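Notes from the 1:1 (GR / supervisor)

We went over the backlog. Supervisor wanted to see one worked example end to end before approving the batch request, so GR pasted a single chain during the call. The sequence is below; no edits were made to it. Supervisor asked that the structure be written out right there so they could see what the output format looks like.
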Amino acid sequence: MRQRTITLIHAILFIIAIHTPIFAQSSLDSLLRTLPETCTSLMQQRGWPSLSIAVVLDQKIIFSQAFGYADVDKQILATTKTIYRVASMTKLFNATMLMQLAERGKVDINDPLVKYIPAYKPKYLPNTGPTTLRQLATHTSGLHVDAAQGFWHYFSNFQWVVSNGKEKIVWGVTKKDLLSTLDKIEIEQTPNTYPYYSNFGFQLLGIALENAAHEPFEKYIKSNILDPLDMRNSDFSLNDEQQTRFAVGYTYLEPDFKRYRAPDWELDVLKYSGGLYSTPEDIARFISFQFRDGMDGDPKILSGDGLRFMRTPQTLRNPQTTDTYGIGWAMYDYEGHQVLGHAGGHWGFGSKMSVLPDLKLGVVVMTNCNYPQGYIGPEKEFTKIIYEKFVPILERKKTETAFDFRNVDLQKYSGRYAVPGDYAQADVQVRNDTLYFSLVEKPEFNAAIQPVGLHQFCFVVDPRKHPMFRFGTDDSGKVVNLEFLDFCFKKK
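Structure output shown during the call:
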C-alpha cells in the first residue's frame, strides 16, 4: 500500500510541475489526500515523535501538515505552527547574508577573512592562503569541522550517549574564547579543492559578516531576510508565545533505540552555524524565494544573478561524499537534475530541505528526534523516498505527456519585440487564429508560426516541426522575450 501511495504522490507533483490540464482540480485534491497516509505509515514504522513537512511548487505551498506529538509526555500534538530547531540549515541564511552584502558593496566574496577579523592568524599549508569569505561559504577553507577548543564538547556528547543521558554535556566555546585563540589555528586540508564541511568556518564567516555590516548577526538576518520573506515563526530566540509552540526534542539511543529527552542547546558561537528556529512553512517561503531568479529576482533580498550565483558549483566534487558546493548550498546531480539541499541536526532535532530549481519544486521536513549513533534520520529518509521515487516517474511522464495544442492562448505572445539597442525589431500578431512573425525592417518577411511545445513555435511550412521561436516568461507567466536565430528579442 505504501508503494502505491508514494507513486500517486509523485504523479501528482509531476502533473502540477508542468502545468498540464489533464486532471481536474478535484482529482488532484483527491490524490494529494494520500500524502498524509504515507507520513503516518512511516512514523508508525520508525517510531518518530512527530514529522512536519511542506511541499513547495514555485511560489505556492501545495501541501503542509504535521503529524505526531510535539511533546510526547504531555500528549501535545504537532501542528504546522510547531517550531523546531533547524540546526545547520542556518548556514544557508549566513550564506545569503554574504551574497547580500556583496551585492550591496559592503564586502567582496574574495576578501580575506583577516580584513574583518584581524585576530585570524592561522598556520597555512605551504603555498596557500589567505582564507577568504568565499572559502568559508563553500567549505573549502581547509579548516577543521569545529574549533580545537570544541574537543571537550564532542567528548561530553560521547559520554552522554554511552551513559544513556546521565553525563552532563559541556557546550561549545564562546565567541570571546574563539576570537582569543585565532592565532593557534592550523589549516588541515588544501584550500580551494574539495569541500570539507566546517561549522568552524561558518562561525568565522558569521562573525566577519556582522563586523562588515556593523550589526549583530541575528538582528541582520531577521531584518534583511526573515522579515522580507514573511518568515514570522523564524528567529534566533523565542518569545513567550513561540516558546509554547516549541517542540520537545528527543534522542534515540542504541542498542534498543530507547527514547530520551534531549538536552537543550547553549548556542553562543554556534548560532552562526546552527542557531535558527523555524517551521516547515517558513522554510518553504525561503525555498520559493530561490525560484525568483527571473530578470529582476527579488531586489529586497537578492537579484536573480545573486540567486543563480549561489547555486553555481564552486568546488570540486568530493570523492568521499559526491557533493559539491555553491555558496552555502550542497548540490548533486540526480538523473540530469540539479538538486540543492541542506540538512541540519541538533540533539533532539533533525531537518532537511531539498530543491529542484528546474522544476521549481521543493520539500522541507522537520522532526523532533535524532539518532546520534548514525541511524538514518526521518528527515533524510522521507526526502529520499520523495525524490528517489519522484524523479524516475517525472522523466517517464515527460516522454508520455503530449503538448495540448488546442488550449494555447496565442494572444499572450502578440506584441513588439526588439534586440537590445533596437538593432532588429519584430512584430508578433494574431490573425485568423494564427500567429504571425514579421521583421519591422523587412516587412516582406511575414510568416505564420505554429506551436510545437510549451512556448515553442515553428514555421507552419516547416515539415520538420523544428522549433525556431522560443518565448520566455517571468515568474507570473507573462511573456517577456522571444529567441530567434540565437538572438533574444525583448518585449516592449
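Supervisor's comment: The longest strand covers residues 60-71.
Batch request approved.
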